[in-house]
Automatic annotation (TrEMBL):
EC number: 1.8.1.9
UniProt domain FAD/NAD(P)-binding: residue ranges: 7-297
Native organism: Bifidobacterium tibiigranuli
Protein name: Thioredoxin reductase
PROSITE patterns in the record: PYRIDINE_REDOX_2 (PS00573)
Domain of life: Bacteria
Record text on subunit structure and interactions: Homodimer.
Cofactor note text: Binds 1 FAD per subunit.
Stored Pfam families: Pyr_redox_2
Record-linked NCBIfam families: TRX_reduct (TIGR01292)
UniProt similarity note: Belongs to the class-II pyridine nucleotide-disulfide oxidoreductase family.
PANTHER family in alphabetical order: THIOREDOXIN REDUCTASE 1-RELATED-RELATED
Length: 313
């Protein structure tokens, strides 16, 4: 166990975690960032060109953006550990965080910025063409499929919102849903049906993403009622079947909503326990953007700083 008690430990990296680290480090708190063992930097490390993050008129690669944030945090005194948190004890004034590698860290304040994972289709070709046609963020990647056929997989509001947005770019948008009815709100469904660029393939599931050495070209779709298999042209395959917030490691330590997202006090980042704060996609089920996560990371750092200041008063 680490002997000294730290002011702040940040669980998770990505835009929220690294931004929180930058703010706390500049304030002199020397935070420890437990960034993750396999994919430090969050979802952006699996993204190619990021064109909607302010300050980069020519765009920036997702991994490069995360590297820059990490180095900026380290420049001001943050310490980075590449490990995964497996358990926490957050109830006492001094909180404990235990990592997979066996180390336990203690801190007066803990910030949770562990993000969320896109739900995957789990079909052949999905991983192979991720970043080369398969995407989980329409607002991030829609631009790359201008005048190309697009499919959207899903039946909720997010899928319909994505489909409507993607008609700005694609030559056509086909929405594929495994049922004959949608979970989306009526207004979203009516809007999509009124859009001549959107077509529907219902009672169907994607069985495979097909393509060449460079990009996706089509999806193989099976009708769950008839068993018939068809191929639909698609250079862009947008999966919109939901997200899973990365909060299971908390094991009930914090209050969560019905979908597993951490609940916070009003517009603050304060959680159900004093001295514990949360930011980014493990809290935000609506916007899920790098810039909004970074902004929330700033708020979490300022909330934590106010808490630490009050402790020392």
């Amino acid at each position: 166990m680490t002997e000294n008690i730290r002011d702040a430990v940040i669980i998770g990296s990505g835009p929220a975690g690294y931004t929180a680290a930058i703010y706390l480090a500049r304030a002199g708190y020397q935070p420890l960032v437990i960034a993750g063992a396999i994919t430090p930097g969050g979802q952006l490390v699996n993204t190619t060109e990021v064109e909607n993050y302010p300050g980069f008129p020519d765009g920036i690669l997702g991994p490069d953006l995360m590297d820059a944030m990490q180095h900026q945090a380290e420049k001001f005194g943050a310490e980075i550990v590449f490990d995964d948190v497996i358990s926490v004890d957050l109830t006492a004034d001094v909180k404990s965080v235990t990592c997979d590698g066996g180390d336990t860290y203690q801190a007066r304040a803990v910030l949770v910025t562990t993000g969320s994972d896109f739900r995957k289709l789990g079909v052949p070709g999905e991983v192979e063409y991720s970043g080369r046609g398969v995407s989980y963020c329409a607002t991030c990647d829609g631009f790359f499929f201008r005048d190309k056929p697009i499919v959207v997989v899903g039946g909720g509001d997010s899928a319909f919102q994505d489909a409507d947005f993607l008609t700005r770019f694609g030559s056509s948008v086909t929405l594929i849903h495994r049922r004959g009815e949608f979970r989306a709100s009526k207004i979203m469904v009516d809007r999509a049906k009124a859009n001549s660029k959107i077509s529907f393939v219902l009672d169907s599931v994607v069985e495979q993403v097909n393509g060449n050495d460079k990009e996706a070209e089509s999806v193989t779709v099976k009708n769950v009622t008839t068993g018939e298999t068809t191929t639909i042209p698609a250079n862009g395959v947008f999966v919109a079947i939901g997200h899973n917030p990365t909060t299971a490691f908390l094991n009930g330590a914090l209050a969560l909503d019905e979908h597993g997202y951490i609940t916070t006090d009003g517009d603050s980042t304060r959680t159900s326990l004093p001295g514990v704060f949360a930011a980014g996609d493990c809290v935000d089920s609506v916007y899920r953007q790098a810039i909004s996560a970074a902004g929330m990371g700033c708020r979490a750092a300022l909330d934590a700083q106010a808490y630490l200041t009050e402790l020392s008063a």
